[in-house]
Amino acid sequence: MSDQIKFIVDNLNKEPFRKNYNLITFDSLEPMQLLQVLNDVLAEIDPKQVVDIREEMPEQTAKRMLSLLGILKYKPPGNATDMSTFRQGLVIGSKPVIYPVLHWLLQRTNELKKRAYLARFLIKLEVPSEFLQDETVADTNKQYEELMEAFKTLHKECEQLKTSGFSTAEIRRDISAMEEEKDQLIKRVERLKKRVETVQNHQRMLKIARQLRVEKEREEFLAQQKQEQKNQLFHAVQRLQRVQNQLKSMRHAAADAKPESLMKRLEEEIKFNSYMVTEKFPKELESKKKELHFLQKVVSEPAMGHSDLLELESKINEINTQINQLIEKKMMRNEPIEGKLSLYRQQASIISRKKEAKAEELQEAKEKLANLEREVSVKTNQTREFDGTEVLKGDEFKRYVSKLRSKSTVFKKKHQIIAEFKAEFGLLQRTEELLKQRHENIQHQLQTVEEKKGISGYSYTQEELERVSALKTEVDEMKGRTLDDMSEMVKKLNSLVSEKKSALAPVIKELRQLRQKCQELTQECDEKKSQYDSCAAGLESNRSKLEQEVRGLREECLQEESRYHYTNCMIKNLEIQLRRATDEMKAYVSSDQQEKRKAIRQQYTKNIAEQENLGKKLREKQKVVRESHGPNMKQAKMWRDFEQLMECKKQCFLKQQSQTPMGQVIQEGGEDRLVL
């Protein structure tokens, strides 16, 4: 209890209370003052509780505090029978009741502030079912519930943002950068608008561009749908292949195995699955739940610094040392029965660990098998996509191998023929080189002979003349052919033009008549359009007037309905009040004393008498306090003087011990004498 009071006093002396209490002054507080302290703490948690208790009725104070403590989820010590004593103690300001409440509130002030803040928005107002039958009330209640859910989501997001570590400076910088980008984009759009306005048919071009953008978005959406459908098809194909493989394996197992082996295999699978379901999976689920709970607890707590981590490490080391000490003590006892049990326990734990390890190995093997089957299906799909053919199996693969062998023999033969051709090509290349060398030698000899005879370059000029004459004959032939072709083409074009003119003459006549009709029809269309526009404008004005009238009549109807419901509610309230008044009159007039006691007048008179008696007692108590105030103050002053005297003696004694002894102090007859 003393530790509790010390904790309360220390927290009340801190911010934001600043009460300047010590243990004696706090313990000597009157019940009314103690209730005021409790109310100040509650007002710090919920600002709505800022009330002077002297200006409030005790019952109202107790009701208000109990409602707030219920919202804060305070559980009084004891069972349900102690609740009445708790309420009475709260009304009269009993210390055994208020001290635990103050201790509980001051321990978790920040958490309770948050809970009180949320309670203002999340405590649902219970609306009677008869009022919910009204549509407006039901709609309002539904909107109220939707707003409550929206507040929950927003509060969660706010808490996540607070704990996520985002700084307001970064967010402000991002907002300013986004605003600058927005201004730049607005200016760019305005410049583009000014450029586009000078272009002809810009509205039509904008419309076409808008349609193009819509079509592109639709194309992207369709491509996305196509990709999703491809993925679904791929998964469906994989599922089909997996099921086909399972079916093949089951058929193979059913074809090869006997009923006894099948039953044995099924029993083993059932045992393994039952072990996984009853032992392994629940343990893993429990460990995952604990890990999740621990992680949620870590996330909900504020960020830890280096000092907090060092404290946690020191605590962990202390707990580990305590555990080791307990283990050593247990081993030092060395009881024989416990030793045998420990052996059995060790064997059981080893067996269970082996069992878990084998189960994990089996699970890993199954997962590997599933992964390999998945890889096989993926590879088959890839080969099908590349080649457009499926992977061959069984007899088909054998036939494919035989075809491949026959093709390989043909390939070898062709390869041999190609090698022979390559060898022959090499020989021909060599003969060509030899002939070129001979030609060069002959040319060289011819040049030497021409130089000797004095006609050097004669063979070269003769070859050039022959070549040029051959080219000239070819060019002349080509010119003759092109001139003939051009003359024929001109004749064909003239004949085609004359044919087209003769064919288009009746069409041109019809076109002239149709142009005249088109001009007449456009005039009629313009006249009809002007008539239609005038008629549509008149109908639109009439329609707007009718819509305004309908809107006004609907508003009047809604007002009358709300007035009708309001009058109905007022009539029901007046009927209830009238019924209560008649019941009160009956109870007051009746001769039965029990019914008279039930009357409100009797209850109020009784409460007034109790309050008057309480006021008399309080006045008497106040009188006693006033009479004893002077002597008590004198006694307190004497006690303070006595404390100062003892402190002075203590200081003198300490100084005397610290100094070198100059003499001897002799105590005789209650007196101290110093002998040098």
Automatic annotation (TrEMBL):
Keyword set includes rRNA processing: no
MF annotations from Gene Ontology: tubulin binding
GO biological process: cell differentiation; cilium assembly; intraciliary transport; spermatogenesis
Keywords tagged on the record: Acetylation, Cell projection, Cilium, Cilium biogenesis/degradation, Coiled coil, Cytoplasm, Cytoskeleton, Differentiation, Phosphoprotein, Spermatogenesis
Domain IFT81 calponin homology as annotated: residue spans: 3-126
UniProt subcellular location: Cytoplasm, Cytoskeleton, Cilium basal body
UniProt keyword Coiled coil, yes or no: yes
InterPro entries in alphabetical order: IFT81, IFT81_CH, IFT81_N_sf
GO cellular component terms listed in the entry, alphabetical order: ciliary basal body; intraciliary transport particle B
Coiled coil region boundaries: none
Role description: Component of the intraflagellar transport (IFT) complex B: together with IFT74, forms a tubulin-binding module that specifically mediates transport of tubulin within the cilium. Binds tubulin via its CH (calponin-homology)-like region. Required for ciliogenesis. Required for proper regulation of SHH signaling. Plays an important role during spermatogenesis by modulating the assembly and elongation of the sperm flagella.
Homology family: Belongs to the IFT81 family.
Name of the featured protein: Intraflagellar transport protein 81 homolog
Organism ancestry: Eukaryota, Metazoa, Chordata, Craniata, Vertebrata
